[in-house]
Design a protein that fits this description.
254 residues, alpha/beta, L-arginine/glycine Amidinotransferase, Chain A, three-stranded mixed beta sheet, 5 helices, 20% helix, 25% strand, globular
Length: 254
């Protein structure tokens, strides 16, 4: 699979009030802007044409655009975010996607779905059932996917915020896994790069056109991925981590 485009939304000063379950303190907005600049350049270095959407002061978490849509080669699905404070973010993203997709579907209430709970591996969608994605949201997405020849299945999440907080598909039938996802039977058919607990944040890495973007500061995980033959780019996203956000959260790639 080759990605051609990326969508990002710039963080705004209101990000310091974003949702978080952690205790790492408030993000440094100026530092976050600089990190976001570097993230955009990394996407471009992987061959993506990046659409940059300006921040919207109504949405402190708006830079985590991955949660607003699920994208495949054939169709796009606009989500219905599980956090009530994030509902509405998806509207502007949906308008942008109309430039690229003929078929755009929508997850509708009472269903909730965050894009961070959806991991695509080939033509199969794994959908995490979390505090943000409910059974109805998963069912709607899997039904839509079936119309286009994709299969889907659900995975109960016990600890992580999102599915992709702890597992990432980096092509070549390979997963990066951490924590509760290392021994899950649903992933028994994959080759696995396992991440130790003290580097669990690095399980949220992203494959883009042969390169793997990895959060900075996790040398063991970086070394394991490189040893599998991948080109690795380290990106510092420390300020977004304070809001439970990872590398995949910050863009839509298609």
């Amino acid at each position: 699979m080759i990605f051609e485009h990326g969508i990002v939304r710039r963080p705004g000063p209101e990000m310091i009030y974003g949702l978080t379950s952690g205790s790492m303190g408030r993000p440094d907005f100026k530092k976050a802007l600089s990190q976001h600049d570097d993230y955009i350049e990394a996407l471009r270095s992987c061959g993506l044409k990046v659409i940059v959407v300006e921040h919207d002061s109504r949405y402190p978490d708006g830079m985590f655009v991955e949660d607003t849509a699920v994208l495949t080669n054939n169709f796009a699905v606009i989500t219905n975010p599980g956090a009530s404070t994030r509902r509405g973010e998806e509207k502007e993203i949906g308008a942008i996607l109309k430039r690229f997709y003929k078929d755009i579907k929508k997850i509708t209430t009472p269903a909730t779905l965050d894009g961070g709970d959806v991991m695509r591996a080939g033509d199969h969608l794994y959908v995490g059932l979390s505090a943000r994605t409910n059974q109805e949201g998963a069912a709607q997405l899997i039904s839509i996917a079936g119309e286009y020849g994709y299969s889907g299945s659900t995975i109960e999440i016990r600890e992580a915020l999102h599915l992709k907080s702890g597992v990432s598909y980096i092509e070549n039938n390979t997963l990066i896994t951490a924590g509760e996802f290392i021994e899950r039977s649903e992933f028994s058919g994959f080759r696995k790069i396992t991440v130790d607990d003290d580097e669990a944040y690095a399980a949220n890495s992203i494959w883009i056109n042969g390169s793997v973007l990895v959060p900075a500061g996790f040398p063991e995980t970086k070394s394991k991925i490189e040893s599998e033959g991948y080109r690795v780019l380290e990106i510092d996203v420390s300020e977004f981590r304070k809001l439970d956000g990872g590398l995949s959260c910050l863009s839509l790639r298609f």
